[in-house]
């Protein structure tokens, strides 16, 4: 694969001294899906806005398929589609005219076949003559995606695309993203829905306080940083963990009828055997045992919580 987007030491400091971006460097491969995770105020939207040319960086460079976003703005921006967080649409315009207008803004010739294809993929074709004001919030967000795809971009930024969208529509959008990837579109997704990144991303980036903590293949990240938990269901509830179990990283579950033990899957010893022996010696009766792998959300929380404010 070859890089389609290269970000080098990108910094943004506002007039009040706030450092929104602190030297972000990132290379995004052609045709991949990158999920960018971070808490509110982490710098996600600032990064996207800078790449798209809506915010001028203090220093650093961004190139889109070889086009510098500052020196060759028009060529770079023509390759980018952006779906913003905010729903800003003309309320009394129809869906199809809204999407056609966006295509025209990029100087593209009219192409009704392409517009129809986009609307059909997003389940908007039967709403093409409907005014925006009559659409649900989820449908309006689909129109934003259709607008972003109207000029046939090769990179698509989705800034919290499924905020306020119900579960069924969210799943449909995931399928749409998969179809776009199959068509060779590179997708950068910011989201608060961790399961969204876990479901569709190839790589995951974690940003906080304007700094990129890591960018890594999703499966590799989970294998390297994931932990497992074993939950022991007890025959009877207890009020406190016996002192004989103090040497284990074990916590009392809600209701007192279970114990949760966290261990590193890559460690030489998991400690499970010793724990089970200690449980028996403490006179605790086991009713059931279950294991659980850490999710991407667990890993994300651990990374962000480990950073100084």
TrEMBL record:
This is ABC transporter ATP-binding protein. Keywords: ATP-binding, Nucleotide-binding, Transport. InterPro entries: AAA+_ATPase, ABC_transporter-like_ATP-bd, ABC_transporter-like_CS, ABC_transporter_ATP-binding, P-loop_NTPase. It holds the Pfam family ABC_tran. The lineage of its organism: Bacteria, Pseudomonadati, Pseudomonadota, Alphaproteobacteria, Rhodobacterales. One of its GO terms (molecular function) is ATP binding. SUPFAM superfamilies: P-loop containing nucleoside triphosphate hydrolases. Coiled coil: none annotated. CDD domains: ABC_DR_subfamily_A (cd03230). Residues 5-234 form the ABC transporter domain. The keyword Membrane does not apply. The keyword RNA-binding does not apply.
